Amino acid sequence: MDQSGSTSDPGTPTPSSSGWAAPPPQVQAGPEDFVYADVPNRAIAYIIDAIIVAIVAGIVGAVLSGIGLSTGSFAPGTLDFSVNVVGLLVSAIVGAAISAAYFVYTWTSMRGTVGMKALGLQIGNAVDGKTLTMDQATRRWLIIAAPGILAQVLFVLPAIGLLLGLVAFGWFLYLLWTTYSSPTKQGFHDHFANTMVVKATRVAG
Asked: Which of 83, 138, 63 is closest to 108 using CA atoms?
């Protein structure tokens, strides 16, 4: 019991709003029970999340097609494919909005995406492990997704779209490389938003 008269249970996990929250009983609470999340784990988590976002975006895209905002049409038996510029732009913007909502919401309310949770990862403020602010989550998402979004929006311009697609791919590789080469596994996006991704270490119990 402390001086205020309240009791403290050493087995109670640290609240998510005050720092890293290790789930009991397999994992003990405390920063010392975490390791920096490596690139393979983070890549697998991102693939899971990308699939979830793609499914939702596909459903929304089907709805948009139903109201005449398809991205294009193909004539059976021919090689003719027409692009609906307005539909393509709307689809890209809606896809970006879905991605932003998914990542920003899960980072700020769940301390990790569905993919991250599946692999025992969590994200927090780099200094003290506190839950990300909306500003941190938004900045992190923009740094990761902005080049890809621009490439999708400008896909209708052949030369520029292709160039931006290559830039987006190169940017993704750069983020992977900065994450891999960092002692704390903080890529450029993590340093920019002052975030850190960790993985809880399992202990016998």
From this structure: 138
pTM for this entry? 0.74
User: Quick check: 171 and 143 in contact, CB under 8 A?
Assistant: no
Question: Model confidence over 163-198: pLDDT tens digits?
Answer: 888 888 999 999 999 999 999 999 999 999 999 999
b/e map of 117-153 (b: 16 or more CB within 10 Å)? bebbbbbbbbeebbbbeeebbbbbbebbbebbbbbbb
Range 23-49 average pLDDT: 73
What is the C-alpha separation between 20 and 35, in angstroms, rounded? Answer: 11
Token pair recorded at residue 166: 């290559």
Check residue 203 and give its pLDDT.
45
Closest CA to 140 of 166, 104, 112, 171: 104
Here the tokens at position 122 are 């969590």
Residues in the chain: 205
Paired tokens of 33: 């029970």
Residue 17 has φ and ψ, to the nearest 5°, of: -75, -15
The pair of structure tokens assigned to 123 is 């994200």
